[in-house]
Each structure stands twice: as C-alpha cells, then as structure tokens.
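Office hours follow-up: a student asked to see two folded examples consecutively, so here they are.
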Amino acid sequence: MHIRSFRIPAIAIIIALVLAVSMAPLAKSQVQASPSYIPIGVSSTGNTSTAWFHEPYSRQAMACQTVSTGGTLSSIHCVAGKLP
C-alpha cells in the first residue's frame, strides 16, 4: 500500500477529533456550598426526639426535633444558629 492511500483517512480522523474536542463541554469544578453538619448528640423524651448537629467551618449549630403520634412521624422542626 502507498502512503497516499492513508492520507485521506488520516486527515478525516484528525478533522473528526478536532470537531469532537471543540464540541465537547468544558469541565468545570463545582464548589461544595452546602454545609456539612456533624451529629453531636441525641435525646428523646416520650414521643419527641431531638438531634444536635455542628458545622465547624461556619460555626453553626442546628437542633432538629421530631414528634411522633401513634407510631408515625407527625412533624420535624429544625432551628439553626451561629455559635459565638
């Protein structure tokens, strides 16, 4: 086989690769913006339970209280605040 017979397919492959790379979306890093809470304690009394969480980077604490009636969860209430 001659070198000329490989020239046209090689050029077609190169053009296809250049088009594929130019049409591919650029990779962009994503910033993890959501807080990462660490559980620090739980307690329960009767039909209510409370869990405390801490997010060290933003110095926030969060407490969530659940209330169950008749063995099913009826409500969840969370409160967050910044630590001094």
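And the second, which I mentioned at the end of office hours:
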Amino acid sequence: MTEKNESVTAEARQILEGISTIAAERRREAQPALDRVLPKWLLEVIQTEVVYTMNPRTFPLRVAAFSALTDLLKEKYSVSFARPTKNAAFSRTDITDQDIGNALIRSDEGIRFENGRFMRTATDFDVIRSININYETIHVIVQGVREIAELIVADVAEMVWAAAGAQKRWNDIRNGIQLIGYGTATQVDLGVPFEHCLSPAVQWFCQNQLLDGEKYALETGRRSVRHQFAVSPTLNGIWALDEVTINLFLFDQRTGRSETTRLNIGVTTRDSAGTGIVRIYSELPFNKHLECIAALREAIAHERAV
C-alpha cells in the first residue's frame, strides 16, 4: 500500500470512529432478533439477501477511495475483493486489485467482496457470502437472518461515505433509499412428503397412470436391444415431486411499475426425494418468509385432514 493510500485509509478510520457508537447501538437494537428462537421445522437458513437502491446523488461511491473502502471492509468483515471473471481485461496477471478496483468503483458494474464473517460473539459467526456495491445499490447476501444483512448494509453505506472523506450516519443516508428488495432461502421440513403439495387428482394420476395402469413412466426410459427395444419386463418405478415454481406478477395500478417475483420449492438432494425436506426460496423478508412457510404447512395439514 502506498503512503497516500495509507493516509486515506487512516482518515476514513478516524471518520468511522466518530460514529462508532451509532453502529454499536444498531447492533444492540438488532440483538433480540439475532437471538430469537426459530421454529423446529426450520432446518437451515441457507441464505438471506437484501438490496438497497439509493438515489445516486446521495451515495458517493464513484468518488470514494477504493483502497480505503477495501481496508475498512476487510478489517470489519474479513471479506476478500472479487476480481470480475467475465471481463478479459481484468484477468491479466500484471493488473493489480488496486487497478481493477479503481476502474470498477467508477463504473456502472461496481465492486464485489466475498467470503467474510459477521461475528456474533468472539468465537461464533455467520458467513457473509457477498457484498456487492455499485453507484446506486448495496446488495448483501449472508448465511444468516435478514437482520444481519441489514446491519451490514448500514455499515457499508457509512464506510462508503468515510472512504469518500465525509462522515455520514446511516439515519441520514437512509433518506436517499428508493427501493428495497429481499430474498430468503431456507431448508425446511414440511411435515409431510413434498408430493402432498399436489392436488389429490394429480397424485392419483401419478400413481395410477404413470406407474400403474397404462404405466406411462416406464415408457420414458431408454430401451435395450436385449428386449428388442421394448420396455424391460422387470422395469419398475416410483415417482417424487422435484420442484415447484410459482411466478408472482405484480403491477402497481398508480405508477405502472411492474415486476415478477417467485416462490420456489424444491428438493436439493437425492436423499430428500419423497420426503418433506425441501428448499424454499422467496423474495420475502426473513420473518414474512417464515410466516409464509407456516401458512403453507397449515394448508397442507388442513387438506390432509379433510
């Protein structure tokens, strides 16, 4: 690191120290949410993500010092700068991370950091999968609850301002937020086999027509010359639901803004096929995601009881 970069980083650290009590207070306020008891059917929080889109005029990434921002993020979260893989110009070995970062931070593409740690205690942490920053967005993906990602967003926003040479608190920065997006992926136990998400009529068809009756399933496999390219007389099968995607088409009647979101439910391992253990992804905040799954489990249980 050059003497100039060290000086800029030292100045940015001093700026953040001036508002460190604000960051500590955010952490204390979020602690109850981090410590809350989660339902037993929630087997794993695979990841949560939040993306904040801000008015570019209130977010000075393009005039921030890449070296200072990188140092602050590494010190706080132990993340590593990720070189772009799709841009051949940045794959040359004679180009340093500093050169690449200086170019990216002023581009629309922005910069990305990966594989960090959000320390819950001195010995326990949640994995930070990525922190993506461009001229108008901060996008954080963590292997933990939503509140962790939101704490990181606030810290990153203050770091960007510090790296630009100014002290700005999150409470002031958030006034420039224009959009917030969420994503949550969890491994859950539905309580019944995944196949019960299908209507009774479809379940009946799968069993009594695909496997039994006309045995359409057996017609789908490859045929061997040993049986003159006919279906093997010893062939058998079972069926299991693998994935369901529900697309949600949203339209604001006043502004005309539209978007498509999705709810995806799927089996992730062969061992989970035919069970109620599935991965559920939604574009819901973490707490609403859990509410949605609880409602789904209740609906399935009610259908079975009727």
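Two things to take away from it. The first helix runs from residue 3 to 17. The CA atoms of residues 110 and 134 lie 4 Å apart.
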